[in-house]
């Protein structure tokens, strides 16, 4: 049953025009901006839209809009592991092919951005962003873009990523296609409306693999043919750091996730234990960095990276310990600090390898 | 619409010392808005007087139980201009008296026998307690956002308004999910408007009942208008703002013009919520038959006096 009055229009999931309003294709002159709900069930089954003339929407400049949609600040999770494993491999005289390195970098970054955009779209379709006023880019909720535009952009980006990555897949007919398929499956599984791995208890494991050992060892294998447990160990350090950030994000959303029966690690542990477990994740990532430094002989450089990581992350864990409420205003700040810590760790590792490389790899 | 007698001392054991005295004080001066809302919803649905009385008593018992506990948690000395129950009697009696009201609710509803109504009431009591718990965890969080506060208020305040709208339908045997989802959204909006209006009283805005000002701020709690007013404030100004001891001092720190501008913006923002509520009331008509449609006429006028505090 559709109801229209004044500026508002309510449609149930089975009403004709529901999908058109949700996707923004119902009109060229108006935007249907979903109204926020605080009730988990209603956000899923019916939606009230505020119908706003396009001319009334105050859109930010295109560059800022693109920045908001693509969330480049999150690219540390893919850029960091690839860059560091490349520098490490190069210092060990791995035989990288320049064309494949470029192809892999472009493919992974495009894929990452595409998943960010698709995540926004599917969270909007599922109603999650109507419940969580801080979730996603808010581009649809502010009327800046139609949802269908995000879906198209996301699919284009993933398509371009697959094209960009083809040279890599074709050059290594053994394990690379399987790894690429796995990564594609997991990445899309995180955002797809039916799989939604992140809400079924697999988010942490998938994040660890995709932003950790699968990325580091997969990248080096695909672009140079080199392999080794040292790349896996390096990946573990990145994996744990990425999971720490992911976990901080889930702590911030713990109330909503618990009410919606989303089985994130934070929701299963509960607020108090989820906060304590951040210490364990920091310890795991720090120990991974130290262990990798020890086994690879890069003691000094990885000691610097170890210290940088600990210095960046310990205040986050301590701040989290002081957060008294699942709605505390500190949680968002701490999550952002967790993201900056990932950048800091990646930068410290990359810098250390660059400084050490001329000594270890003549002609570097 | 006659005022329903919520409390009768004959319903409670006379051998418990001070219990009836405590309840006499508690139920003497309340406005009974929630029981009035029950009557407004129940009338067009054609519920029997006995059921209406049960529902009205249930919601007022739950609400007043929460007040007994709330005053103790906040250490508020006064309630409706008189000493709070915990201050006049003892904290222990205030807690137990609140618990006893909730127990009576369950006993009375069980006797009535509508299992869905009992289940929903239990969930609402849980939501209420959850809201209290979360609110207590946010004391002295001066950077809280309006969205986060709304989630607390939806549990604490909104849950009772939602119950007032949904319970009569449940009592009548109307269980359609779409209907109850819609009533949930309407109840959320009523609760939000009521809470935001109450928060404005703390800043002496439309304070016809003469409620003490800045009580929330002094208790370590930034309410919805406080959040709105202090948004984008420079850190040093905000620090002084939070330490204000009087409304005059607060306005001089925040700036009179800023106060007035933000109040106008807050009112516009909440007028949008009233418009949304009226839209949902129109939608509700599609779920009602015959004489039930008179319910729309009862519900439409509610939000304006609730928010603007006009009689």
Could you report the average pLDDT of chain A, rounded to the nearest whole number? 88
- The proportion of residues forming helix of chain A, as a percent range, comes to 55-70%
Instruction: Specify the biggest β-sheet of chain A.
Output: 4 strands, antiparallel
Output the CATH topology of the largest domain in chain A: Farnesyl Diphosphate Synthase
Helix percent of chain B reads 55-70%
Using the CA coordinates, give the radius of gyration of chain A. Answer: 22 Å
Number of strands of chain B: 2
Query: Which stretches of chain B are poorly predicted, pLDDT < 50 over at least 5 residues?
Result: none
What is the CA-atom radius of gyration of chain B, in angstroms? 20 Å
Give the helices and strands of chain A as they follow along the chain. EEHEHEHHHHHHHHHHHHHH
**Which CATH top level class of the largest domain in chain A fits?**
Mainly Alpha
* Most extensive protein-chain contact, per-chain counts: A-B, 28 and 30 residues
* Spatial strand order of the main sheet of chain A: 1-2-4-3
- Mass-distribution shape of chain B: globular
CATH class of the largest domain in chain B: Mainly Alpha
CA distance, first residue to last residue of chain A: 68 Å
Number of domains of chain A: 2
Report on this structure.
Chain A is mostly helical and 364 residues long. Chain A has helices at 18-23, 40-45, 62-70, 76-91, 98-126, 128-131, 147-171, 176-191, 203-210, 213-224, 229-252, 254-259, 265-269, 271-296, 299-322, 330-360, and strands at 3-5, 8-12, 30-34, 46-53. In chain A, strand 1 and strand 2 (8-12) form a beta hairpin. Chain A is globular and about 70 Å long. Chain B has two domains: 1-113, Farnesyl Diphosphate Synthase (Orthogonal Bundle); 141-311, Farnesyl Diphosphate Synthase, CATH 1.10.600. Chain B has helices spanning 19-28, 33-45, 49-74, 85-88, 91-112, 115-137, 146-171, 177-201, 215-218, 224-230, 235-242, 247-254, 256-284, 294-299, 303-308; strands at residues 78-79, 82-83. A two-stranded antiparallel ribbon of chain B has the order 1-2. In chain B, 40% of the residues are buried. At the A-B interface, strand 2 and helix 2 of A face helix 7, helix 8 and helix 13 of B.
